[in-house]
Amino acid sequence: MVRLFRTPVVVEGRKVGEWFWGVTCDACLVEIDAAHEVTRCPHCGAVFHSFCYNALLASKGKCPKCKMDLA
After folding, report:
1. Which residues of the chain have pLDDT under 50?
2. Where are the chain's structural domains?
3. Are the C-beta atoms of 28 and 34 separated by less than 8 Å?
4. What is the pLDDT of residues 49-68, one digit of tens each?
5. Are 47 and 25 in contact (CB under 8 A)?
6. What does the alpha-carbon distance between residue 23 and residue 46 come to, in Å, rounded to a whole number?
7. What end-to-end distance do the CA atoms of the chain give, in Å?
8. What is the pLDDT of residue 38?
9. Neighbouring C-beta atoms of residue 48, cutoff 10 Å
10. Among 3, 27, 43, 60, who pairs with 52 as Cys (CB 3.0-4.6 Å)?
């Protein structure tokens, strides 16, 4: 089942609204819902829970999708 919901997206340090259709976090693979703040990879646009993005920055520092540096 595909669900439509609105969730905040953080792009370059600011929140912007965007529609997501049953999107999952590219780090933990858990569905992102309206209660979660998300961050995108600056290179490929992969979507992450903000806490997953911060964990990736602290550990590997690379996007699991495009393998580019997140910083």
Report:
1. 1-5, 11-16
2. 4-58
3. no
4. 899 999 999 998 899 999 99
5. yes
6. 10
7. 35
8. 84
9. 27
10. 27
